[in-house]
Amino acid sequence: MKFAKINGIVIHYDDHGSENATGAVPTLVFSNSLGTDFRVWERLVVRLRDLIERPLRIVRYDKRGHGLSEAPADPYVMNDHVGDLAALLDHLEIEQAVICGLSVGGIIAQGLTARHPRRVSGLVLSDTAHKIGPPEMWNDRIAKIRAGGIEALAEPILERWFSNELRHNQPDELAGWRSMLVRTPVAGYLGTSAAIRDSDMTEAAQSIAVPTLCVVGDEDGSTPPDLVRELAGLIQGARFEVIEGAGHLPCVEKPDVLAELMSGFLKENNLV
Q1: Is 216 exposed, middle or buried, given 0-12, 13-18 or 19+ CB atoms closer than 10 A?
Q2: CATH number of 2-268
């Protein structure tokens, strides 16, 4: 476990692959979704290392209010999350990286690219959008969680996260991810919900000028395929792919498929 004071709060991160490498090492930075920590990427990272036949530096981190990172009082704004990621890159002396963002992590990735375009060599935007949901939806979610905790909405959230197959046939797996969700600090969940509510990355998406892969699970109940396709349409030259049999977290349900798509995309664009 690694920790650093970033913008006044302690951020938990993992930085693997830079220790013994010589020369320039391609760097991938992963930013995860609302209600998860960076373990959500574990299966995908293992498969990517098998498919990409050269050293990689892979950084994963828990955004503020999630995992083992500190959770300041809510609400947050998206610039808080974007600023945290930029400062983490500074701390790790990473000049440029491919940013891989899931859900709100994808919004953070878009924001970072808009603010610091030279620091981003490519984007993988998974199950995300330029604008997620109307404000009324987020206000309702925030009110219910303030009243009853994350437990109050755990079941509908899991329905959006996972495919029918996982929810009905893998109860132990579902229970594990439920535990991750409900153990998220309430301040972190509410603060990040407010940040998503108030974010519109339409202009940021239209300004993106790096190779971009947009992917989505065909059973995603949070950012459905048509919404992610709309995001891809805003980004010049973006590639759009649908992953069958996955919900909102293809990195969990279909890591092999996502790793194949990512490795092909990264190689085709000389990013690794």
Answers
A1: buried
A2: 3.40.50.1820
Look at residue 221 in the predicted model and tell me its pLDDT: 96
Give 36's DSSP letter.
-
**How far is 166 from 221, CA to CA, in rounded Å?**
14
Whole-model pTM: value is 0.97
**Are the C-beta atoms of 128 and 231 separated by less than 8 Å?**
yes
Model confidence pLDDT, tens digit, residues 128-155? 999 999 999 999 999 999 999 999 999 9
As a dihedral over the C-alpha atoms of residue 90, residue 132, residue 197, residue 43, rounded to 10 degrees, the angle is: -50
Cross-strand pairs, 59 = 15, 29
C-alpha distances out from residue 101 to 28, 77, 192, 202, 204, Å: 10, 17, 15, 16, 15
Q: Which residues contact 124 (CB under 8 A, 6 or more apart)?
A: 98, 99, 100, 101, 212, 213, 215, 262, 265
Model confidence pLDDT, tens digit, residues 8-37: 999 999 999 876 555 578 999 999 999 999
Other beta carbons less than 10 A from residue 95's beta carbon: 10
Model confidence pLDDT, tens digit, residues 79-91: 999 999 999 999 9
Q: Specify the higher pLDDT residue, 24 or 118.
A: 118
What does the radius of gyration of the chain's CA atoms come to, in whole angstroms?
17
d(CA 181, CA 149): 11
- DSSP code at position 94: -
d(CA 134, CA 121): 31
Strands in 57-61's sheet, in edge-to-edge order, are 2-6, 9-16, 57-61, 27-31, 97-102, 120-126, 212-217, 239-243
